[in-house]
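In response to the reviewer comment on reproducibility (Comment 2.3), we provide here a single inverse folding case reported in full, input and output, so that an independent group could reproduce the run without further information from us. The structure tokens appear first.
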């Protein structure tokens, strides 16, 4: 109605404008012709205007005409209407603020907030929810018509709340509904998924007795650097950069846990982005805590793992699957796109028969298989021969590497070094970080910290490690008692004969030094740090079995320190002295944590099988022991040997660091990846 009224006024203005030009304005001078208007002569002709006044007449006409003002007003009014409608349809997060004027909520609006009763509104809204608003007509208690605004704080993983949200939006137009749902889904994908422990095993000291860390904030404070400050790490002159520049890649994650395979795929995505490629991530299971890290690294996560992921993959130059668990998606994709197998390079990071049995239906349909170690490659090829599976091409071995961030903190030259943060400067800072973290852990310089970071399950052998540490502590205590008895005998003999022996004072001094050394050795403690508390990959029953074993060995519990699952592990490596990888079965596939520990100069103690046997050289870069409970005694002896021989421990750490710098840095891994790209991608 307002617009129609404005149009009528404009038409009237146009109709009356000629009459205004000849209107008469009275004045004191008696002239009947208005100033600035043309004079009418008796002959009916209008004399020619002076050229100097032509522009002024146009300006005066513009000022006197209301038509232009009405047109401008209509334009602004239309623009404002479209703007308000667009903001209301698309900006779901600020609809409550949209109803406010001057910081106060309008009185004609009733806001109804549905909040999970188990949590406060602030914590839910700030951490794990999105505000979704719907406006419906309603009445207040007095019967006055008002608008009712429902604000639902829906959890990310709460399926029921999403269904209720969609039901409240059914009354809206189809276009608004589709747009708002698309925006909500994108916001949900960008949220970090909390990596919570099983409800039966809360992450508290009441459960684990001594739970410390993580030390990310301390690490940032001491190093005066944070991973958030990292810039592009691509080697601009490398063949890898030349091959991936402007190409499209799809990376397939089987989950987002803080374990080797997902972390390795995330770092590959970061390197591809840094080198100018376009990367999309398809995630089959969103459990774990890496979603926030993917968002920080600007890795685009495809919204689903079905039709949309297939369309994205069809446009890619190469699809890299990061686990044998990806079999189902690969099978569905090739059924949807029969020629899709030529796009897939399958980076298999498992080494157990159960994973082979799951993957064997599609092994001969993908372009290429990628393995981590020689032992893994031989094992899978043997199984393929047994099952009469003929692969399309020869597998390629691409071992993992130490990423730039860990190498940077370890003092190894990397792409993150700057003139002010040189490798020498970072070694000094790492020593300061070591002292700070050990102080937080309650350790002295003489104590030996043994560390094992991995998901807690039978395949990693943490329970066997606890049994071995218990044996080592018992054997050490027995040795200390024997030494103490021998010292007491010397004390009883020497005083009785000191008046007969010359130089008795020197013998007394020797005896006192022996007692002091014995006392000093008793002060040296063996501590074990076990990581990944709260990881979704942990087996709850196995964790309970470990806790039960500790409760039955009270003294052992005092030597155990637990730490939560985290990607900030540089501080833990800096504080440790020995790293243990006690993988069982066929051994570790490769052992990413093994090379990371060696990069920090730690002696590695591992099982004599799998990839660990390829990386660790016995008595040179570490010590090896048999698998199973038969190896517990050897593992205990190896720990005691390193505890008593600091020089040997330090030398093994130096040799291990040299090997990592020579074979397992980032440039070595991506140099091998070039072979995969050349064979799999179209020129």
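Designed residues, in position order:
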């Amino acid at each position: 109605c307002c617009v129609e009224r404005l149009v009528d006024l404009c038409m009237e203005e146009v109709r009356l404008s000629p009459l205004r030009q000849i209107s008469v304005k009275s004045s004191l001078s008696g002239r009947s012709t208005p100033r600035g208007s043309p004079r009418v002569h008796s002959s009916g002709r209008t004399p020619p205007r002076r050229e100097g006044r032509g522009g002024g007449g146009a300006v005066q006409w513009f000022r006197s005409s209301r038509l232009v003002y009405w047109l401008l007003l209509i334009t602004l009014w239309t623009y404002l209407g479209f703007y308000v409608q667009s903001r209301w349809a698309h900006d779901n997060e600020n609809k409550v603020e949209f109803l406010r004027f001057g910081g106060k909520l309008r009185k004609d609006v009733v806001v109804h907030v549905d909040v999970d009763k188990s949590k406060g509104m602030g914590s839910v809204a700030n951490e794990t929810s999105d505000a979704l608003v719907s406006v419906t007509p309603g009445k207040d208690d007095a019967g006055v018509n008002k608008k009712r605004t429902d604000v639902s704080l829906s959890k990310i993983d709460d399926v029921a709340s999403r269904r209720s949200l969609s039901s409240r939006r059914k009354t809206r137009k189809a276009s608004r509904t589709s747009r708002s749902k698309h925006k909500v889904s994108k916001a949900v994908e960008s949220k970090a998924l909390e990596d919570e422990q099983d409800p039966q095993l809360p992450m508290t000291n009441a459960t684990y007795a001594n739970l410390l860390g993580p030390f990310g904030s301390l690490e940032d404070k001491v190093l005066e650097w944070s991973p958030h400050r990292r810039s592009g790490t691509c080697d601009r002159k490398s063949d890898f950069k030349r091959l991936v520049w402007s190409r499209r890649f799809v990376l397939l994650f089987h989950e987002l846990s803080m374990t080797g395979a997902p972390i390795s795929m995330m770092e590959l995505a970061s390197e591809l982005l840094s080198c100018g490629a376009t990367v999309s991530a398809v995630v089959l299971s969103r459990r774990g805590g890496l979603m926030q890290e993917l968002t920080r690294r600007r890795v685009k996560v495809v919204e689903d793992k079905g039709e949309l992921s297939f369309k994205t993959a069809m446009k890619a130059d190469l699809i890299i699957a990061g686990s044998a668990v990806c079999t189902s998606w690969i099978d569905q994709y090739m059924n949807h796109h029969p020629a899709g197998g030529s796009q897939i390079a399958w980076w298999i990071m498992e080494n157990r028969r159960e994973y082979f049995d799951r993957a064997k239906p599609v092994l001969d349909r993908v372009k290429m298989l990628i393995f981590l170690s020689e032992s893994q490659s031989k094992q899978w090829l043997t199984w393929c021969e047994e099952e009469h599976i003929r692969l399309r091409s020869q597998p390629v071995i691409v071992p993992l590497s130490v990423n730039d961030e860990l190498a940077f903190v370890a003092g190894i030259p990397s792409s993150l070094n700057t003139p002010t943060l040189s490798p020498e400067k970072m070694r000094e800072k790492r020593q300061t970080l070591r002292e700070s973290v050990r102080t937080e852990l309650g350790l002295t310089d003489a104590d030996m910290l043994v560390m094992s970071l991995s998901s807690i399950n039978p395949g990693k052998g943490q329970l066997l490690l606890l049994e071995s540490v218990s044996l080592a502590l018992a054997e050490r205590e027995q040795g200390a008692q024997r030494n103490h008895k021998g010292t007491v005998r010397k004390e009883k003999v020497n005083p009785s004969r000191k008046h007969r022996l010359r130089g008795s004072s020197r013998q007394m001094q020797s005896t006192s030094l022996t007692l002091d050394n014995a006392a000093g050795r008793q002060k040296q403690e063996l501590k074990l740090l076990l990581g990944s508390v709260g990881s979704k990959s942990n087996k709850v029953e196995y964790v309970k079995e470990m806790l039960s074993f500790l409760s039955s060995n009270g003294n052992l519990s005092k030597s155990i320190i637990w730490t939560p699952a985290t990607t900030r592990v540089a501080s833990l490596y800096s504080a440790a002295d020995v790293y243990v990888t006690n993988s069982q079965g066929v051994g570790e596939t490769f052992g990413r944590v093994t090379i990371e520990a060696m990069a920090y100069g730690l002696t590695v103690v591992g099982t004599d099988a799998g990839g660990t046997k390829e990386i660790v050289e016995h008595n040179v870069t570490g010590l090896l022991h048999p698998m199973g409970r038969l190896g517990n005694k050897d593992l205990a002896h190896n720990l005691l040997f390193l505890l008593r021989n600091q020089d040997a421990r330090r030398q093994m750490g130096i040799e291990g660091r040299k090997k990592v710098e020579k074979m397992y840095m980032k440039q070595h891994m991506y140099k091998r990846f070039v072979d995969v790209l050349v064979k799999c991608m179209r020129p």
